[in-house]
Amino acid sequence: MPEVLRDSQGSKHYLINLNVNGDTYTLAVKGNALLVNVLRDWLDFTGTKKGCELGDCGSCTVLIDGKPVNSCMVLAVEAEGHEITTIEGVSPSDKLDRLQESFIANAAIQCGYCTPGMILAGKALLTHNPHPTEMEVREAISGNLCRCTGYVNIVKAILAVADENPPEGGESA
Amino acid sequence: MYLPDFDYYAPPDLVEACQLVREFGNSAKILAGGTDLLHKMKHTELAPEAVISLKKLSELKGIRYLPGQGVIIGALTTQNELADSPLLHRKYRSVCEAAHNMANNQIRHIGTVGGNIVNAVPSADLPPILMVLGAKVKLVNIDGERTVPLDEFFLGVHQTIRRDDEILTEIEIPDQKTTGSTSIRFGLRKSGALAVAGAAVAVEMDGETCRSARIVLAAAAPVPMRARAAERLITGQQITPDLLEQAGAAAARESNPRDSIRGSAEYRRDLIRILTRRALHKAITEGHV
Ligand SMILES: Cc1cc2nc3c(=O)[nH]c(=O)nc-3n(C[C@H](O)[C@H](O)[C@H](O)COP(=O)(O)OP(=O)(O)OC[C@H]3O[C@@H](n4cnc5c(N)ncnc54)[C@H](O)[C@@H]3O)c2cc1C
Ligand code: FES
Ligand code: FES
Chain B residues with CB inside 8 Å of A31's CB? Predict the structure, then answer.
């Protein structure tokens, strides 16, 4: 249970350490603070988008310990102790990740609103399954809505990275 | 969209959790995955004074087999953990399939089996398959515990026999003689859509003869509903395509679905007829799938 602080009105705040993209941020959040709002409004990770805010669209997807989840459905106080990856941290260097490059090369982006969530969902898939079938790709992004592309090029972009992966074992995407 | 303010508690063990739940009574809400609770709080359908999170209770996690008893599933097991469990794959793949086919990938990583049960909505995907497998749930409060058949758990939409101070800790699928089980659901999209209707069945076959059968329908009544007339129709009988057709029709007749934006009562009833027939055929011919 995180340390509890009280403000002048007597409201409770909880002192948490959030690990985002490898950096630790110490914050005092209220119980009702949603992870998506803390990432966007406090920490400026505005690559995490908000669409439905009800778990339906996937535009707020982040990875928590490598798994894609909707950050609009997670309390910030419950994200403590976990590794959070946002689109800003998907590539460890200042170059784009191979999957990001592939989205550009395959014209898998139109307005771009769904793109961060799509890339993180695709990334999570490729990390544990470097050679997915088209069906598995479609399933992995089934929680991410795109209003522009019709999905065809998004699926292509993810499969293109899978094709480049070494056949057996080896490094993953 | 913002949540109303509340005090947050994350008790480190079950005893402390039970104490808190007793202390706050119905002014607090229990939080598991939060995919239902936060939804309702965002729409201010609920504004609890306190939220008591179960996340720290490691004793409510994991799936194990107790020889001579059955499979024990911790209430905090997520839907994707159910879907990917090697133990469940071996014993009741039908449970994995039901979990895999619900909600969407992101929600399945956080939504729990306990939350899916306690939430008590007629379209929920996990209660029907667990009920046909004769599952029981363990409810614990500060004074003790009780184990009740899931069959007797639901009273109405969002209403169950659980008392405000009880925590659902685990689900048990007892060892059994069933030879097959499955659930089939129909949604308006493949992903992220609640079931318009669904049917789960478990059967014990002896050659061509059905020794026993359990059928539970989703979105067919205010609670997950046993289709007893359909069960009676096939129990002790030699299975024929015609009999399965009749069983489907019987389930449709005894169901009591409602009109909603997802489908009219009439449409749902026809779905129930077909889904029941198909589920029976699948469980009879393919085993626990
Ligand atoms: C986009 C989206 C899609 C969805 N699709 C589906 C679907 O296809 N099929 C389906 O069935 N559901 C679906 N749901 C509903 C929901 O995800 C599931 O019901 C889920 O299983 C709820 O689990 P949870 O752990 O998130 O519950 P929570 O929201 O944490 O809890 C739900 C309720 O149960 C209580 N509770 C939870 N755990 C316990 C416990 N151990 N003891 C006592 N009380 C407890 C809580 O107080 C609360 O009232 C969907 C939800 C969303 C947001
Ligand atoms: S904004 Fe979170 S799923 Fe749509
Ligand atoms: S590119 Fe516009 S929503 Fe996907």
Answer: 5-8, 51
